[in-house]
Amino acid sequence: MLLQWCNLQPFGPSNLAAIRFASPCRVQSVKIFPTGAKPFANCLDIVARTEPEAFFMDVYFNAHPIPSTSQADAKHKLKAPNALIPTVIAYSGGRTEFDIDMGADFGTRLMIVRGDFESVSMAIYGEVVSQAAPAVTSYTPGLLHLPDPVSISPAMDLAKASDPTYLARQLLALIPDAPSLNLVIRLMFCLKPPNDDWDLPDFPHLYSDLSEEELDIDLDSAFRCLSRPVADDIPAEPLQRFAEKVADAIGPMDDTQAYLVAGILCRSASQHPDFAQALMQAIDLENVFDASNLDDEDTISRLLDASTNPDIARLLNSDWFEGILQSLKALPTTQREVKKDAQRLTARLRDWQKFESALSSPDGNFVDACRFLKDVGSEEKSFGIWLSCMTTHEDLLANVRDGPPPGYGSLTSLLDPPSMAISYGDFIGFVKAYIGVASVLAVYAWSDSLPNDNCRERTLGVLRLWQEVPGYREIVNHLLLLRQMTFHLGCMTTDNDPPEQSGIHAENIILNLVNEPRCYLSPHFVNCIRSWQPFSLTYISEEERISLDRAATIADDGLPGAIDELVRSDFPLTNLDRIRGLRVAVAVILHELDEDEAGDRNVLEAGWKKTVHGLMFRSIDVVASVSQELEGLCSLSMTQSRERGIVEQLLLLSGELLRLVVRLKPLSVTTNRSMRNVVTAVADIFVCADLVVLSPSTSLPTVVATGKRIRQTCVDVLRALSESRGVESPKQGPALFLRTLFERGLRPGNIDPAHRVVQTYTLVERLMPEGSPEAAEPNSKWVLSVIPLILTDLGTFFRALDVDRKLHFIDKLVAIDNETLNIGEWMLTEELKHMGNIARLLGGGMRDPHHIVTQHEVNLCLQFIAQLMDPSSIHSSMSVTTICTMPEASRALTDTITSMLSARLHSKYLAHIARILALSTTVTDPSLRLAIALALVRGASLTELSMPIGHTFESAQAALSTVSGPDLALDRLLWEFGHCLSAIAGSGDTLDSLDVQSVVTALAWLCDKLPGPSDLPGLSWDKWDKLCDMFENGVLPDMYGSLKSIKGRLTPLPDSSIPTALIPDVLSIPVHALTSLLQPPAPAPSTPKRKSPGRDVLGLVALSPPTALLRSPAISGLSKTYTRNDFRELRQTPLARQNTSRLPSLHVDEFEFGVSSPLVQPVAGAPSDPMGAQAFGLGAPFSMT
Known about the structure:
The chain has 47 helices and twelve strands.
């Protein structure tokens, strides 16, 4: 709500103005309006007046504490302190809103402003707060409404634009008499005009004149002639003549000539598309370059830049030039930087060809093509040449423009290889976005060089917006690390008084850029950060500036500073400053390891000089600390408020630390304990990253993208470490990793247990090999070496999975096993045995929460087995064979069925299993066949199962047909048949003739097995008469004899048994019952163990407790004093032999007789005295005669 509208004018020499509110308020935002603005549509007479157009304004809020409910009810209220909370507003013009976060504990009644302004019109928004917030007495659950994601504007989404340069051209049009975009690209990134040219009246239209007929040039003059751009409309003839004159000027091979020719090629690479082609056709480069004259850093560096032109790259991508580069790298005298550039030149020539192929073919190598783009964007001149070629070469631009559109989702960053396959449309969309962002950066550099405030402010605003969009953010941050971009941003952040919007944008961009620690690897960026003076910034706070300066100092110190930061322990991981320092330290170490041939040795030597040994173990400790912090932030309990963005920064730090661990692994001798710590930390980070992705509080797309990327990093790290240690021994590699994951997945800590199990399973699945037929042989070796080591943990973890993941896990295990160990049969048998064990607990109270949970667990096991045995399953044959042929499996299933039927329980999955097994001819166990028949008959009595009566009785009879007489439980069969027939008669449904015939056939078979007339329990006479009428009307004439026999042998016997209940598929229990289930079990009472005589001399003496006197009725008081053997004589009296109290103490009995049970005692005075009790004058505590 609007709290105040005012036109403030400062008063006095201090330029102060104040606003006093009538009651405590919580200010949420302040909106400043420029002169002439009408802030309210319903009050057009209110006009703002703010002078000057830009200024700094100090704002002070009186801190008025808001007491809690308990404090408000107290009799004595503390006086509000007269404290002022300062902040600074940098107003750069226009209608600007500044957000203010006062928190929930404070309000304000006074707002003081001070600054160099004449007048300021502002609207203050917030809410009025009471002295005490009302107490919450009830809670009403409601829906959590998440904000809808806002997609990027189509005008800004260049990945889906037909012309990726149109936004840059529109921004460039804001500058009066602006040159073409192609010319701006050449001047900003490629040719770099001297300072004197900027002052010439014709600038930037200053071109090289190549059309003079009498021009006689040598290589040096030709090189200097190309310092200016060539006009785009120049005819082809002057270009051809110039190229021929350059070719004529080439003489014998030498170093200077190679240097100049490389420079001519480099300067022509960004010019007219026909120019480079003319030079390459006229010059015989085989007579210019060899291994000796390329051993110069400047020469090969210019060739590296020139090769970014596709025409030059095609000519250099030949056998003769590749042989020169190979010879150059093989020479022992070649400089290290030259070897590095030669390697990059070889890769660039190869990747240019792959990039062109990827632009035109959906089967291209998109990963290598994206790597080429990343390499090109790391150096300014190469980047400018590539961008110029992409915007001037019609064949390349046509492939980009006519390519397929990307998917409907957001842009995917391809600078780092993604985990999923790259589609042709996504690649073309990424190239369009890359070209578009690069073109906008060229416009920004041009607008800042002039300068033009309007274009510069708009361009920086576009870049700032892109930094908040995944996909574009990675491109922008990568290209902003170019030297010129860093220079322009540094200039924008200095001397920003009065404040300008461009400077505020620049500080925001840098603040987003520092989230990428690799930016500190640029010395130009580090110099930019360290050049900031205290209290000189507009948007970045002084505290933040100090933090950035500390990180820049770490990068500037190199390896020693990075190692110091990594191993320090006096700084907690709960603030962004420490996290930023760690990320920079890790980036410095990784850069040294990856970019330098001697990086391994340099890192180790730097650690030794700092007396830091075991850098690998220090890194593992930091990873473990980060995982603990993430667990605390993602726990089920309420956490303390932390700094904004700390979750994302911890995730990014964890990913970088894990990459460092992988990189340091070959340099260290690791133990199983350290690897277990790594696996545990990776599992915790993986779980927390998924929680961050799914959490509604982290709706920012950048945080979600970070969480997904870190999850993939966790998988990659586990695979890399497991494979590296698996070479030494499977026990130390995959087996160790999988066993650790199984154990960690079953220890939820303060994380949602179900979520931890699911995410751990995801890691386990990705850590296992693929079960493809092509990998059958290596998979067989893996199974033989790993699975036997993890069987116990595998079975325990398997039981914690839900049904769908159990089925998926079985699919994967069977595919990997490929009948090597028959792991599928073993897993099914273990599941059946576990089900049989817990089914024995079904006899408890029906309303007991533990009983309900046990029912659900048994039902889940049945569901898994039923789906595994279903005919549509690929494991149906294996499952049925296992149950029928393995005694343990059939016995466990029999026990389960028996326990369920005894507990009056049934399940639709049990009915499905029984139907499948009843039709199987391989079931040989008579107990199992009997249990199957009983389950079928019981299921037919439950209307919820809707089992066909006729088919069910036929299946039951078929299951019982091979069961011999001694194994038939006739009483149990009569009970089941009686209650089933009672349910059929009571249902009111009429059986058709086929069903009646099946029932009568089954009853006739049963009567044949009976020794004589028998009762049918559970069936009343009324229902029996109804059934008999139904039988007579439904059977065929040839079955009348059987029906007569049934009536003569079976007699109904009514009873009042408990009905059978169907276990529901969904577990539903009250919250209070769930609370009781989660309580730890009470410890069982036990007597402390007796100490050994060697540790306690007094343990040799049996002492009765002081309260023993109170338990004897022979004691009339507490004043009697016993001497010598009085007490034992008293215990020998007949009255003392009566058990008037309790059984003797366990520890006394153990000492006297060396047995564990006080109920079994030897006779006193027996010759057997193994403990030598009589030697000490001790006797039995009771007379046992």
